[in-house]
Amino acid sequence: MFGKLSLTQTQGLTVHTYTAPDDGWRVNSHIIELPSQLLIVDAQYTLPYAREVAACAERLAKPVTRLYLSHDHPDHILGAAAFSAPVYALAEVKAKIETASDRIAAIPAHAGRPSRVVEPGVETIDGVPIDFLRLTPAESENALMIGLPNHSILITQDLISNHVHAFVGEKAFDSWHQALNKTQRLHYQKLLPGHGDPRGLDLCDEMHDYLAVAREAYLDANDADEFKQRLLEDFPDYLGKEILDYQIPFLFPKTSTTFV
To answer: What is the spatial distance between Cα 67 and Cα 174, in angstroms, rounded to a whole number?
Structure first.
């Protein structure tokens, strides 16, 4: 296996988190193991790593009944072709993927775009209450978080990254901070981020700190190189440096002509 597998376990439920290596941007796919079926959250950036997630699910000997795509960014959806389950997304995310905007134009035609809409609210699946939460402007314009309230587990996806650089190309710093504050008030104890290892509620504080530095770096930088260098210096142990390059055309469009 090229990626890393982590387990978040509570009585009667396990979430298997697959974290891709650095060339897969440390993106997470989460396999929610219910009593008789599996739900998968996000499909990886590349097909090889998506196939590893599918292989992990196959070893659990339960059918995958749903694949949820949390948002429209390519690192979470391009591997969808590796899964045969119905694909779910928020209505806003589904619409954005269907338009195949510049950010997601590389999706293959057979990649299993969302066919079903997730409605925010609590749904009981296989006897387990699952809370579907709509997250608005943060890392992306709209995103899905998935809570397991009886088990104090929250799959935040890209609201939070754990020691992996975050995509701040939307420049939604204020609303992102507000979303983190709201998430902290939900009182979930185990947070499963979009990039990096699962951890506790302290991840929200670390994300606040990262965003504060990123905002200051963006406002103070004369160019993309200064911005990138500031984040590399302030967070020397952070992985996912490719994400810093990818977001440059969004932050500094006048000096960027192509996607990195």
So the answer is: 30
